[in-house]
Fold this sequence. Notes:
The protein is an all-alpha fold. Helices cover about 75% and strands about 0% of the residues. Helix 2 runs antiparallel to helix 3 and helix 3 packs antiparallel against helix 4.
Amino acid sequence: MAGRGDALRALLRAANALLQQRRYHAALAVLKGFRNGAVYGAKIRAPHALVMTFLFKSGSLREKLKSIAQATYTHSRNLAYFVFTYKGLMALQSQLQGKKIPFHSFFAACIGGWLVFGENNPINSQIIMYLLSRILFGLSRLAVEKGYVPQPKQDPFPLVAALIWGTVLWLFEYHRQTLQPSLQSSMTYLYDDSNVWHDISDFLIYNKRTDSK
């Protein structure tokens, strides 16, 4: 046992010494990026998939758990692959040109987005829509910071909120098929299901009756 413990400690010392080598920093950063992408993707997707599956999906418990695991795995894998690709291309471009420039980030992310998130599926669609909303806010703020757009005299957020909610409810009521499925499910629960009840049980306690009355 003592010999095995000594060997393990020696291995840990060697690993820590390797991690301190500056010449391997770029490659090690790519590997840690892969690890962080996988962990973060799982942390983000697992609770979301758990809630959405048990709220809106039918099926057996086994089917629901399988769906949650599959969604979590897909999100975790894709984010890990993307971070790995992005950081790898960033390191390669920096090494080839001898310095880091802004275009490197855009180019590396475009390649990673095409390769990893290019497939049109529910997970990728949710991620892209999440990013799109933040990009629009970020570009708006950048335009003001750079002077391309004058600084608003009043906070524009109330107007933005009004327009977004007005648009999404108009789409839901009259062009529902254009909305993403999980958003359709959420809005159906909020705005359609609240129009239907039979007695106190499905008015206050349950959303829908499960009996055959």
